[in-house]
Each structure stands twice: as C-alpha cells, then as structure tokens.
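Re: beginner question about structure tokens

> Can someone show what the tokenized structure looks like for a real chain? I only ever see the sequence side.

Sure, here's an example I had lying around. Input first:
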Amino acid sequence: GDFFGGGFSGGFGGGGRTQSVNRGSNLRIKVKVNLHDVANGVEKKVKVKRQVACSKCKGTGSADGTTETCTTCHGSGRVTRIQNSLFGRVQTTTVCPTCQGKGHTIKNKCSNCKGTGLEYAEEIISLSIPKGVKDGMQLQMSGKGNAAPNGGINGDLYILIEEEKHSELIRDDNDLIYNLLIPVTTAILGDTVEVPTVDGKVKVKIEPGTQHGKVLRLRSKGLPS
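And the corresponding structure tokens:
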C-alpha cells in the first residue's frame, strides 16, 4: 500500500490514502497449572501490569488539551518521498515519523505521561483455563494487552501454560501412568490395592499370578482432550 501510494483500493495511480490505526503491544504471561486443573479446568486470577490511558490527560498526552498541526506532514499524517530508480521516479508514501500518523503534535506535554498518553497500572484479570491444556500451549485474550495511544486498539494478552509435574503420576498425552510397586506375595496371591488418580485414590484388584510389567487400565481416569 505504501509502495503504490495508498493501497490497491486507490489504484496504481495512488489516488486513495489509507489511515493507520494505532494498536497497543501484546503481553505474554506464564500461568502454572497442575493435573487437577488440566482434568477439570480452572478459573485463575492474575495480576498484570500493563499500559493504560493516562489518568491525568485521559490519554491525549496534552497537559491542556491543545495540539498543533504537524509541520512535517502538514496535518495529513503521511509523508511522500520521490526517488529516482532504474524504472524512473518512484513515489513512496509512509506514516509521518514526527506525529506517527496523527496529523498533529502536542504543544504542552502532560507531566504524568510525558506526552505518550499512557501510564502503567496493575489490573486483576480473570482467566478461564479450559480442560485438557498442555505444557507450552498458548491461550489468547483479545484486548487485554497494552493500550494504544490516542484511543487506538488494545493489544492482546497471551497466556503461556506451564504444567507442574505430579509427584506420582506421569502424563503421556491424555493418558496418565502410575508405576505400582507390589511385594512378591501380592503378585502371587493377588490382592486389592489403592492407586492415585487426579481426583483421589481408587482401589484396583491385582489378580493372582500377575507378572512384572503388566499394564492395568482404568477407563476415564486420564485427561480430557
């Protein structure tokens, strides 16, 4: 769009001018979950430090609310440069570097935000972690990132899942593995023993003559997708 002077909607002749939209930067946080959280889902509250609109100037960046026309772009928010190339004269249009596309500059900057229109604040955000998440998985919350100057679009918040290891259970995708050690007498004669699961211990019957390495399966005691 910059190369052809305003985007394809304006044609190759460069008649149209696209307006840039400010967008705040994204944030990323880590959230720890355990196997019980993975199995059942969980609601978590986290404290996030992010940029918000300045409380003193209401996000304008101006101490008294006054602005003046940008002397670089003369209020258009765009600057056009013409360069000579092998193909002749090439015209490029870009966002004005002085006013960042706003078309005006601040005369008296706000003492609180130094003219940026933004300040840092801590916010408690509620996260809904769904069932079946995995270590390294990334969730997204739209609009919960940093605010943009001059009332633009907020960035997004990315939540990186960090799974805590269980003291007894080993995760294998959506299955859970438990290594049960039994005495020789139990293996020969059989018995009923307790084994841990995500939601507490359950009883398992060991058949007489059970061999070392035998795998017993408990249906629906693993993790959801």
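Each token stands for a local structural state, so reading them left to right follows the chain. Residues 1-18 have pLDDT under 50 and may be disordered.
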